[in-house]
Amino acid sequence: xxxxxxxxxxxxxxxxxxxxxxxxxxxxxxxxxxxxxxxxxxxxxxxxxxxxxxxxxxxxxxxxxxxxxxxxxxxxxxxxxxxxxxxxxxxxxxxxxxxxxxxxxxxxxxxxxxxxxxxxxxxxxxxxxxxxxxxxxxxxxxxxxxxxxxxxxxxxxxxxxxxxxxxxxxxxxxxxxxxxxxxxxxxxxxxxxxxxxxxxxxxxxxxxxxxxxxxxxxxxxxxxxxxxxxxxxxxxxxxxxxxxxxxxxxxxx
Length: 253
Description:
Elements: E1 16-20, H1 26-33, E2 37-42, H2 45-61, E3 69-74, E4 87-93, H3 102-112, E5 113-124, H4 126-135, H5 152-161, E6 165-172, H6 176-186, H7 194-209, H8 212-225, E7 228-234, H9 240-252
Parallel strand pairs: 1-2, 1-4, 2-3, 4-5
Antiparallel strand pairs: 5-7, 6-7
Helix pairs in contact: 4-6, 6-7
């Protein structure tokens, strides 16, 4: 289940991609299938081991084209172990709502992104997320849980302040909002409640079968109750005058 829409976020074979806070690796796997050179980074060692296993299985099964590479590694989003301008593409999906210093994370992403590079940021959408917080303290008052709810304009402002130029937004996963409302209403750890189990079966069926009816329903509902807000941006090239000044400064050293 992808949150980033790759029809709006073009990825070329050979692009160097950082999936920051990759979790179980869903976006990293898709980038690998598309021929990218992928680095999947997360602070969770157990998840990174699983992602590495899946990368190896994909390679063995021939799921990635020639030239594609994939690496899974532990790392700190606030201190990325990469030089400046290392990546053509950075993806950070459902991560920033967990991190106190979100401005620091944006600064690190911009640092490692090449000028002209592209970035995709996804976070829980304000409305559906407010419902979850209202229904359940346990949903967010846990170690490593959600510490803030972004309004769309707030996230876009922070991206602009970090030096990025947003170029598109949308919402995703409308069918998942009711599931999380049910989870919060019946207990976030209570998977045995009949409404939760029934709705989960529906979601699994939808993900596996991708029927036209639910695909159309989600497209219609995404603008209203989409669970995720997705923003795309580029890192502008330096203006020619500024670039020339930087080159002169380097030459003078």
